[in-house]
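Morning, I've got a small favour to ask if you have a moment. I'm working through a protein record and want to make sense of it properly. The fold is given in discrete form, as structure tokens running alongside the sequence. Can you walk me through what the tokens say about the fold? Thanks so much in advance, here it is:
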Amino acid sequence: MAPSAMPASGDHTGATPHVVLLPSAGMGHLVPFARLAVALSEGHGCDVSFAAVLPTVSSAESRHLRALFAAAPAVRRLDFRLAPFDESQFPGADPFFLRFEALRRSAPLLGPLLDAAQASALVTDIVLASVVLPVAKARGVPCYVLFTSSAAMLSLCAYFPAHLDANAAAGGGRLGVGDVDIPGVYRIPKSSVPQALHDPKHLFTQQFVANGRGLVAADGILVNTFDAFEPDAITALRQGSVVSDFPPVFAVGPLQPVRFQVAEKPAHYMRWLSAQPARSVVYVSFGSRKAISTDQLRELAAGLEASGQRFLWVVKSTVVDRDDAADLADLLGDGFLERVQGRAFVTKGWVEQEEILQHGSVGLFISHCGWNSVTEAAAFGVPVLAWPRFGDQRVNAAVVARGGLGAWEERWTWDGEKGLVTGEEVAEKINAVVGNDVVARKAARVGDAAAAAAGKGGTSYQSLADFVGRCRDAGW
């Protein structure tokens, strides 16, 4: 509904805080916000309003919003329509980075929405932090940030502006980014720093640095992780080792999947999974955000075929799903689908990843290490073979390896680096990890720790309860 039709939530003298959530673009941001909305509404008794940013970039986002409001009718919808934005000033920019910028420039429009909602607190996305925080503060609304990646990546985001400042002072700005030694955490090597951040003029770099500097003004930071998985980064952030006077950090993950309405019949891929032996299937997905080149897709196909393993592969060939019209057979090479028929299920369609990862036939997840994928694998104790492609994903892959969730072949290339990972390398690595009892036991322990954290009385459950308490006591 429009903000003007939004029912008031009362004068906030009662026990029910009203939390407004404002996500940004992309499934990697939308999914954790949807999960937080349901956790606050159903698990912690909050009055929740959810800003649906319109228009969406992808079809997947539109579907997810419809499914969220159908599955959680207590979560109220706020339509947030963006101001006109001339994208031509950023030729060739990533469509999701452009949407981040359009959202940032539309931040002043948030004021009337907050006034109508009479919110106890606003939770906004990290990519909007530096522009939304002042709008909320001007209206006396406590503003929190949901960081949609790892605590390790949060520590990089918080420390990166100081790192740039130190480099500029030491070398007049000529030193570049280099390795980043985060106090109290660990070194992020130059090769793992998101590609865009190596270019100070890049649109994303400008957004990232502004948000990093702005974080100290937040009333708190929520992170979709848990203490036992990232103890070093969480402790360093809370103790002020990364940035002094840092806001409170609430580790609230892994946020649980929304229980969407169940289809009358299981999806084709789920029926196929149910016919496979326990822990025998390699699930392959590189997320909703980036495409892999055709040459690398074909090497991956060759590796999956040569491994001899059963596999379920979700193929993505374009950045935005609405643009994807390529034929699978053309993408993957003549005869591939026929040769793997029976032991493989290959699709370009949308899948419910949580359903797949909790299925007993899945024994390995080849993942780009988008943070939603990592937390889902952690929640279900599924071993991960990390193959990061861009952005925060090498930082997250290091968390996977450090945390015992799986393995990362650091030599494998990502976007912008020369060379392909060959099919032979892929097959060899898959067969080294599949069925490895040590790897499986470690991942299962991560799953147990995730369940303990998210369960009642666990560290993440209590952290979210503490956040709700702050919203309730915000002075209304």
Confidence is low (pLDDT under 50) at residues 1-13, 319-323. Residues 61 and 299 are 30 Å apart (CA to CA). The chain has two domains: 18-258+456-474, 268-451. The two ends are 25 Å apart (CA to CA).
